[in-house]
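To fix ideas, we close by showing one paired sequence and structure record:
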Amino acid sequence: MTENYAIVFEPPFYFSLKDMLLGYSMNTALKNDVDATTKVHVVHLADGKVQSIDSKMFAFILHFGNTFEKDGKIYIDAPAQENPNINQFTTLSYKNLTESKILDRKIGVNFSRFEINLEKETVSIETLIPSENGSFD
């Protein structure tokens, strides 16, 4: 959130009704749509108008660091999972922890900066700190 905007990232997740009916946990029933992209919704606080932008990339963000406006753009610093084939909600499963998969750097997230250009309706990403040693948020 900035002084003028509230920003909501909508990653392409959905719940598998089949898994839920079969009694699987919410973590297991939550799936990534690996072919879809993250939508970014920007709420203009002055009038409540919502501007939705397709980021044209997969990015799952659970926590946010810094958000600011500069030169007519919005910047958001956050740890982001950019691999749609990894479900962050099952990363910390007992099986992954016991098999040391959690240390696999392919599971880690990058600390990234998102640039939202409202005029051009684009979202770009710059990796600030890569997950070379394995990390998770």
